[in-house]
Amino acid sequence: GKDDAALERWTKVTVARRDLMAALIAKTGAALSAEAESRLGTLHWIFIRGSMIAALVSVAVVALFLFVVSSVSRMIRAIEERMRRLADGDMQSAIPFVERADEIGGIARSVEVFRQAALRSVELEANAEDSRRRSELERVEMQRKAEADAESRLRQATGAFASALHRLAAGDMLCEIHDQLDPQFEELRNDFNV
Known about the structure:
Elements: H1 2-87, H2 103-169, H3 183-193
Helix pairs in contact: 1-2
């Protein structure tokens, strides 16, 4: 008996402990499961929120990239179009974006150097043409003056000889030409007066 009663008590205590442990394990498991569910829900929400933020950031980065590419492309096309017009002779329109401090501004400033060189070339050509025109006008004017001067000297000489010949024809055999004539007519005047 005594051993059986002790064994029975030990068995009851062990079963009670086992049931208590099972209840504790079940209670702890339920608490852990509830906590895991709660954390899983939180992690799921954090994951969704993080994914949404990553998607929004990706969309923003792509949009910014497209905007930058479009802007740079638009600026390059504007400079290219201005270069084409410059090659076609439009030197008066300003080159866009020369004030920028980046590479686009560097390209624009390089094109501006070509535009300024073209303007100087046109100005030099205009000055040379103007100078040629003035020289031609001066030459024509000098030739006109020389011809007018020669005609005036010839008229003076022929007038003097015509007057002397009229007097001679009228019978004045002692007539002479006293007016000083151009050097080319002086020998003829001297011959007439002899």
